[in-house]
Amino acid sequence: GLILAIETSCDETSVAVIQDGKHILSNVISSQIEVHQRFGGVVPEIASRKHVEVITLMIEQAIAESGMKLKDLSAIAVTQGPGLVGALLVGIVAAKTLAMALDLPLIGTHHIAGHIYANQLVHELEYPCMALVVSGGHTELVLLENEGSFRMIGRTRDDAVGEAYDKVARSLKLPYPGGPHIDRLASVASEALALPRAWLEADSYDFSFSGLKSAVLAVINQTQMRGDTLNEAALARGFQESVIEVLVEKALRAVRAYGAKQLLLCGGVAANRGLRAALTSRCEAEGVPLLIPPLTLCTDNAAMIGAAAFLKWQRGEYSSLDLKAEPSFSLEGWMAAQVQG
Ligand code: ATP
Ligand code: MG
Ligand code: FE
């Protein structure tokens, strides 16, 4: 199966051509980060407009770089949700147009299934496996008992990890997106400020980061009121250590409880050096195989959408041409749906 995949859920316009859910023939990405930077976050209306400006070019480039012809394609995949509704629509309209013009099946795809199946572009997955999804909008532990079976066993009750990173960075007046800046600050800190850990109930796999975020803001305000200089690096490191400790503990506990053969780290925050290092050493110590995609496949890209869409293609489950954007799409719901096109 040769799938052309389109991703426009947030601020990256990306198109890829993927063979059999595993081999990347092309994966072109146009990022809007610079456009949104001066607003300190993604502005939905601007995101949609930018997608419209570049989507056609991205499709042409992805085809050209793949070395394939349009007639070689087997299906058109597109991110159906979750994401910004206006941004999603741009990809969906482009995908429908291609599917109709080329008379190919259309496959609406779940964005988080994409982040998880990004691992399949570089590793052999073994089931059951556990996915720790850490991104701008999601923080989840997902059990995959078999290929394409998703069971959410834990999720954030408030902020996503990436969101907490970006908010903390913003209060330190660091540019958007703040995650990488906090990561860098933390790595040069000589000490870590003591901050709370949100373990929640003893048996819970859920997460919560808003209390930690408030604790960080309180430190910043108090330091300011006292007229002291803030040790930003120590604060960044304290924040990062709190986040990482909880993520690592809960992920490893979930791996043991469900007998997972592998732990998959997925989503944009998988780029965090502190998190990668902590998970790597902990998994080594406990003999758990850890899979992490290369950086370009951790953040938003269409290759991962092509990898996830292959699950549906194999089953012959296609979407109808009146497919709608699903801004808050459920992962379990996506795989259960068997719409025939
Ligand atoms: P979702 O996938 O949930 O819809 P998204 O697609 O916007 O959200 P991603 O593109 O997967 O999110 O990831 C972006 C997030 O990753 C941002 O919040 C960014 O700050 C964070 N991030 C990127 N690099 C790092 C890093 N080194 N450390 C911490 N966070 C990081
Ligand atoms: Mg992004
Ligand atoms: Fe994402």
UniProtKB/TrEMBL annotation:
Single GO biological process annotation from the record: tRNA threonylcarbamoyladenosine modification
A Pfam family assignment: TsaD
Keyword ATP-binding found: no
EC id: 2.3.1.234
Keywords carried by this UniProt record: Acyltransferase, Cytoplasm, Iron, Metal-binding, Transferase, tRNA processing
Primary location recorded for the protein, binned into one broad class: cytoplasm
InterPro entries, alphabetized: ATPase_NBD (IPR043129), Gcp-like_dom (IPR000905), KAE1/TsaD (IPR017861), Peptidase_M22_CS (IPR017860), TsaD (IPR022450)
Annotated PANTHER family: TRNA N6-ADENOSINE THREONYLCARBAMOYLTRANSFERASE (PTHR11735), TRNA N6-ADENOSINE THREONYLCARBAMOYLTRANSFERASE, MITOCHONDRIAL (PTHR11735:SF6)
Similarity comment: Belongs to the KAE1 / TsaD family.
Protein name per Swiss-Prot or TrEMBL: tRNA N6-adenosine threonylcarbamoyltransferase
Protein species of origin: Paenibacillus algorifonticola
